[in-house]
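Appendix B: a complete holo record

For completeness, this appendix reproduces one full record from the ligand-bound portion of the collection. The bound molecule is flavin mononucleotide. The inputs are the chain sequence and the ligand SMILES; the output is the full three-dimensional arrangement of the complex, encoded as structure tokens. No fields have been trimmed.
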Amino acid sequence: MNILHISSSARRSQSYSNRVAQRVLDELRGRNPGAAVVTRDLARDPLPHIDEDFVTATRSPDGPQTDEQRALLKLSDALVDELLAADVVVIGTPMINFTIPSTLKSWLDYVARAGRTFSYSEAGPKGLATGKQVILVAAKGGVYAGNPALDFQVPYLKSVLGFLGMTDVEVLEVEGTAYGPEIAEKAVEAASNKLQARCDRAAVAA
Ligand SMILES: Cc1cc2nc3c(=O)[nH]c(=O)nc-3n(C[C@H](O)[C@H](O)[C@H](O)COP(=O)(O)O)c2cc1C
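The structure of the chain with flavin mononucleotide bound, as generated:
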């Protein structure tokens, strides 16, 4: 089993999404001792925002023309390869200003590649990063059940992942962390309880 772990909270060891994602990884590794885990810590090692060089490198018919563009294509290719090699993708994300952190958005910008992770045909867009199980750990300060219109975190991520072919997404939400440590700890436990069943499915499918 190949596991790709994407971490994106700048709060590092204080982070609830990191804590629950770590439990997910411990469970998966416990059930699959031979599992290989690749971690991309986007808070520690953020990707450069995409720019003109990136667009030329990845989209121009002539391909990259400069060393900078070749380096960007190589980085994007490596991230795509990591994603395509994964059987399970574990993503930890905080909610930042009602959506995902810009570091995680940058990762999506690097892996959403026409011809590699999606394609267009007369039948419409087709996701190419298929056959993966995604476990999404989403922490947020507020609670959005009563106001889902403001939640651009989980719905956005599920939409993009689905566009790339990842439709098997289990969401573990850690909600209301801004309401104090007691409520936050309860949310961590609720997410962890939900985890067990998901890991059973992942282990069986591997
Ligand atoms: C810069 C910043 C912006 C935030 N924006 C929101 C927000 O729009 N909505 C919300 O519910 N919580 C927001 N929060 C609170 C975080 O989502 C909350 O602290 C969550 O636990 C962060 O995830 P983590 O514990 O994995 O770091 C924000 C936190 C920071 C630091």
